[in-house]
Amino acid sequence: MKLFNKGTKQDERQKKVTNYPSSTAGSTSASTSASTSASTSGSVPAETPPAETLNVAMEQLNLDPFVSPRHEEVPMWNILPSYQLYEATFSKSIHPNSEDLRYEPPAYQSDREPAPTQDGYFPPVEQARGEPMQTWENSILANTHRMKKLSDIDNKVANHLHVEIYVTEKPGKLGVKPSIIDPSVWEFQQGDNVNGFLTVTNTSDRKLPFDALSVVLEGRVMVTSDSVESKEPSVFYKFLNMFDYSASWTPTILVSDFDSNVDPVDNTELMFPMKRYFTPGITYKRFFNFCIPDKLLDCACETHNLATHCEPPPTIGLARDQFLKNLRKLRGRPATPTHSRSTSDFTIGGTPPSHSKKTSPMAGSSAKMRDFSFADTSISYSVEVRVVGQAQEYAKELAKSKTQVRGDEFILLNETSCFLRVIPRERLTHEFGAEAVESEARTIYSSFLNTIKRKVELGNDLLSEKTEETRVNLGHAPSLTKNKQLFNVTGDRRKLRRQDSNGVYQVFVPYKKKTLVAPPKVIGLIGAAVPKNRYRIKYIQPWKFRSQEDRDLQSTLELPVELRFLPSEGSAKGVLPPDIKSVSVDIVACTYRSKKYPIPIEVYHDLVFKNKPSEQDNMESHLIKPCKKYLDELVLLTKNLSYDVLDIDRSMIMDVKSIAKLNVKYTTLKVDNVKVKPKQGVSTHWEAEEASFSHKMTLNISFSKLSSKDSSGSYEDLTQEPIVLVPSFQSCIIGRLYYLKINAKLQNGEPITLKVPVTIER
C-alpha cells in the first residue's frame, strides 16, 4: 500500500455560530470527613455599552482579565451540604459584621410596637432585591491571596503561631503513630488519596484569637506580573478547590469516633476551641483526607465549556510560593556535592544514583526539574492551611505598623502549604476516542473562525451600503449548541473525510543537484511520509519518583517512514534518486500560554504545523497571525460602526484577543537513541516505480536519552538538572503539545524534515 496520495484542497466551511458567553468560572468542593464536593458557578451577562462609547476602538476597552472566580451569582446556601459549613466559611465576607460568638449576646426586650403589615410571608420583591446576596466573590476563601498578612505587620507575633502540615501513608487514627512520608518524592494521579494531619501551636505567652481556619486542596494556574513592583499576579485562577470540613474549624461539634480529645501519641488537642483562640503552649491537631478527582467540575471552563479544559492538568512550572518555600529550606541545609558526567548523553528523569552507595527514597528530593514551561507560569496543587482573624483583635500590633488596615478587616494570621506533584492519566481519548475528541476541537475552531468572518463580512457590507436584508441575514448567529448540531451533518462530515482522505503526514521539497561549475538545478521532488495514526509515548517519571521495579523505565516508538523521489519532466533521462546520508529525530515540546483571557478553543496539531517546507510552518502563522488580522479589521470597523450593529459583545473581543496575543514556546530535544531499519549504508536502495522511486524504512526511537538544543544550534549537556516531559494537556490558560521532527540528510547536504504529532500519556 502506498503512503503517498494526492491531497485534496480543503473546502472552506461556512457555519452559523454564536458568541461565547462572557463569564469566568471557578469550582469549589467541600468535604465532610473525606471529601464531599460542591461547586459554584455563575455568569454575568455582557452589558451593552452606552451609545456614546460604541465607537471606541477595541484596544481602549477595559476588559476583565481571567481571574478565578470573578463573577459569581449563585448563593452559597443553595449548594453547600450543610448550613454550618456556610456559616463557618462562605458567610464570612471580606468586610465582616459586628457579630462575634466569642462574647455574650446582648439582652433582648420585647417590643410592644406593632409590626408593619405585609401581604404575605415573604418580603416584597423590592426589599428582597435590595438585600446584598452573599456570593463566592465576596467570601474569605476566595480572597485569601488578597488579604494582608500579619507577618507583614508584625512578624514577631506571626512567628508565634506555628502551622505545620504532615502527609501520611494512611489516614490518621487516634492513638496510632502515623507513618509520615515526603510528598515531594511522590507523583499523584486521579483516585489517589492525600492523607495527613495539621498542627497549630501558640508559642507566645498570650491567647491568639482567630476567626476562621480552613484546610483546602487547591489546584491553580498562576502567571506572574511583568511589573517588578506589582506583587499581584496577572493571572490567578483556581480550577480546583476542595474544602475538608472535618479538618477545618466549624461552629458545630462533629460526632467523633475518638474517645478522647487528646491524642496519646503526641499529647495534642484534637478539637479547636469553640471560643476561637489558641491557648499558649498547646498544640492542636486535625486529620485531613483528600482524593484527587477524576475530572474537574464543569464550571472550571464555564466560559467556553470545553471538555479538555475540564481535565486535571499536570503539575508544570515552579509556583512562586513553592520556590520561596524551597529557598527557606535550603538556607539551613549544608551544600551537597553534585555528580557530573563526562558524556553528552542525558537520561530522561535525571541521573540515577550511584550504585556504590545506599540511597533512600528521599535522596535528591530537592533537585530542580526542567519541564520547559514558561518561567513566569505554573500549574500547582497544594494542601493549604490558612488561619484568618480580624484586624481589630491585633490593634496593638497595627498601631505600630505603617500598613493601612481597617479595624473590621480580615487579615491572614498565618498559612502554610504542602505542594503535591500531580500527573493525571488520559481519560477523554480512552472514553470517547481520539478521533471524536479531535473532531470536536475542529468543530469548535471552525465555529470560532466563522463567527469572526461573519462579523468582518457584516461590517464590510454595511460600509458598502448593503441592503437591510443583507444586514439582517448576516447580523445574527445561532447558539453554540445549535451550531454544533448544524456542523455534524452529512455534508460537513464528508468535508472532514476529504480533508483527511490521504491518510498520511507528508512533505515534499525540491531536490537540487549541485555542481562546482554550474548553479544548483532542480532535478525533481523528494518527499517523506508517515501513516496517519495516533502515536503515543509513555510518560517517563523522573528518577526520584520511580519505584524499585520501574528503575529501567523505557519509552519507545516504532515509526514507518517512506521516502519518494519524483524526477522532474525537464530533467535528463536516467536521473537517479539521491542517497540518504543520515536520519535523526527531534522531539519538540510546544507550550502556549495566554496572559490575560481564557483560551476559547481546543488546539489540535493542524493549528501548530501543516508540514509546509517553510520556516513559518508554526502556530504563529496558522493560528495567531490570522486572529491578529481579524482583530485589526474589527478595530477598524468599530471606528465607523457601533458594536450593537455588528452584534459584538465583550466575550467575542476577549476570545479574539486571547488567541491574537498567545505566547508560544518551542523546546527542541534531540533523541540520541534512534535505530534505522534497514541500516543506511553508503548508497540507499531505491525501488523503481512508475515515474518515481520509493524507499521504506522503520525508525525505532527510544526517548530515554535526550539532548537539549539551544538557539545557537548546539546541543546542551543536560546532566545537572533532570528534565521531564509532562503528558500532553490543555487548559484555559496554558497547554502543551508534542511532535516529532524526522530529519533526513540528503546527498547534496540539505535536509528534508517531516513533522509527526505525538501524544505523551501516563
Automatic annotation (TrEMBL):
Lineage of source species: Eukaryota, Fungi, Dikarya, Ascomycota, Saccharomycotina
Pfam families for this protein: Bul1_C, Bul1_N
Organism expressing this protein natively: Meyerozyma guilliermondii (strain ATCC 6260 / CBS 566 / DSM 6381 / JCM 1539 / NBRC 10279 / NRRL Y-324) (Yeast)
Domain Bul1 C-terminal: 555-706
Region ranges (Disordered): 1-49, 97-119, 331-365
Chain ranges of the Bul1 N-terminal domain: 132-469
Biased composition (Low complexity): 22-43
Protein name, as recorded: Bul1 N-terminal domain-containing protein
Compositional bias annotation for Polar residues: 337-346
